[in-house]
């Protein structure tokens, strides 16, 4: 896929946004934790898969030994991050 | 005949439109739309020999496969989100037929409309903050083993250095908090994701903030100005975006939620 100059051209023009493709890790942050989740009558959804053995997931979501003071270290494998709406 | 599934990328409200003629998704398959009651799902066909549960378990161990799939998914979502308010669907969501997708649009019509109305004229921005110098979280303090003289002096020095590292870390964490609060103030919605693993972020510095912010398009200038005003020597801020509103459309449908099935 060729690099695409995305929306947000104004900040990009001011040199804020790197022109290269989106980093995979930033993408996975959103694609694995965000978006509409559906299951039930579905063939398959990533939510249906037991992700314990998935190395990548563990890498991304692993609870790091040194959690920052003041952040709630979580022991759940899957944390829900709830947006705060004004 | 190969069994196939219907892979869903995104939901929008703009019925009657059509995807860009050459838009392709996962596996290079052409993207088409399924419409129902004013809602549109962008979908493509995927072979179940690749997207069935067992093959997927194997594929999900393969970073290259995940990368290619994620980029294809993102490409479709971005192409759609460029023109209309869009609710992205989570990576790898596969139905057995188009009828099931229509049925989903019918049954969850109001939920989709509500979610989509919240993201009109807004985009998601990501801000990551790194401790500019190597400020690792301090290790647990060791028990002093007692003793006098040089040993005690050494322990005192060691404790002092631990305390200063702890202070530095606390200071950085407080700064991250301030960055998040300030940006959240300009945004209509915000959330903090878990900081990325250094192995994936490609940075040795500790990530102290991995935030997502849903910002009105007409306040983006204000948002980036606020970000620039927060730039300091001790903390390195990185802006990504604009993104389709992935982090603000995480709606759960017909499901107990995304927690692992065997979660306590």
UniProtKB/TrEMBL annotation, chain A:
Record keywords, A-Z: Gas vesicle
Primary localisation category: other
Keyword check for GTP-binding: no
Cellular component terms per the entry's GO annotation: gas vesicle; vesicle membrane
Location in or out of the cell: Gas vesicle
GO molecular function: structural molecule activity
Family label: Belongs to the gas vesicle GvpA family.
This protein's name: Gas vesicle protein
Taxonomic classification: Bacteria, Bacillati, Actinomycetota, Actinomycetes, Streptosporangiales
């Amino acid at each position: 896929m060729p690099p695409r100059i995305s929306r947000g051209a104004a900040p990009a023009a001011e040199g804020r946004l790197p022109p290269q493709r989106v980093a995979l890790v930033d993408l996975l942050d959103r694609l694995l934790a965000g978006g509409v989740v559906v299951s039930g009558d579905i063939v398959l959804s990533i939510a249906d898969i037991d992700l314990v053995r998935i190395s990548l997931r563990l890498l991304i979501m692993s609870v790091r030994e040194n959690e920052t003071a003041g952040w709630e270290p979580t022991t759940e494998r899957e944390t829900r991050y709830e947006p705060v709406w004004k | 005949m190969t069994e196939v599934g219907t892979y869903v990328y995104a939901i929008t409200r703009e019925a009657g439109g059509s995807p860009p003629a050459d838009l392709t998704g996962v596996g290079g398959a052409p993207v088409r739309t399924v419409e129902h009651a004013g809602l549109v799902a962008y979908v493509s066909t995927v072979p179940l020999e690749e997207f069935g549960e067992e093959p997927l378990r194997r594929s999900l161990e393969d970073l290259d496969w995940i990368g290619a799939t994620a980029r294809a998914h993102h490409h479709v979502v971005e192409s759609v989100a460029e023109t209309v308010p869009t609710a992205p669907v989570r990576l790898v969501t596969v139905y057995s037929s188009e009828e099931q997708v229509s049925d989903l649009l019918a049954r969850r019509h109001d939920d989709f409309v509500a979610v989509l109305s919240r993201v009109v004229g807004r985009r998601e921005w990501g801000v990551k903050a790194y401790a500019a110098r190597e400020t690792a979280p301090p290790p647990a303090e060791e028990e002093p083993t007692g003793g006098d003289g040089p040993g005690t002096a050494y322990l005192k020095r060691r404790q002092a250095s631990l305390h200063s590292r702890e202070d530095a870390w606390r200071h950085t964490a407080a700064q991250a908090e301030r960055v998040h609060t300030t940006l959240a103030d300009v945004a209509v919605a915000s959330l903090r994701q878990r900081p990325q693993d250094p192995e994936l972020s490609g940075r040795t510095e500790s990530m102290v903030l991995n935030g997502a912010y849903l910002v009105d398009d007409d306040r983006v200038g204000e948002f980036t100005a606020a970000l620039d005003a927060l730039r300091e020597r001790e903390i390195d801020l990185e802006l990504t975006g604009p993104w389709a509103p992935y982090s603000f459309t995480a709606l759960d449908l017909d499901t107990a939620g995304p927690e692992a099935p065997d979660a306590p």
